[in-house]
Amino acid sequence: MKNILLYCVVTAFSLPLYAADNQPNIETLMTAEELRATGVGELSETQIEALNAWLERYRDDEVTAAIAEVPVDTDSTASSNTAQQQPLDVYPPPRERIIIDTRIDGEFNGWTGRTRFVMQNGQVWEQRRGRRWKISLDSPEVRLSQNFLGAWEMEVISEGRSIGVRRIR
Which residue has better confidence, 59 or 17? Predict the structure, then answer.
């Protein structure tokens, strides 16, 4: 099952890369039949967000840059015209988890799909996925953190609700 999913993701990226403002996600890259056949349609919201974060990083050539750093074996016993590369299962080191504790500046009414969040620390974040949640709070405390794939999430501490976000400023 994992091999099929990986195959579908890699196949999807054999298509031309999208512009930076047109961020593809797995639901738009695969047909309903492909989602069902690969099991992607049965993933949790968190797993889908993690997969989409990986796709975004892949598109931004982070994986390509990591592969380019793999040393090449220039053993003299090899043919003079060819160099042997190490296997592509060499991964970059894991990222250190970053956590930002701050507050939303002013009145907060939840999120509606593409909500922008202005923080008291001067940062501006935008919702990544089209989820909705309605509430009325005044300057709630939030925690911004990276998940294991590097995607950012914002949690409204008092409510225990979180949403995927990306930093705008």
Answer: 59
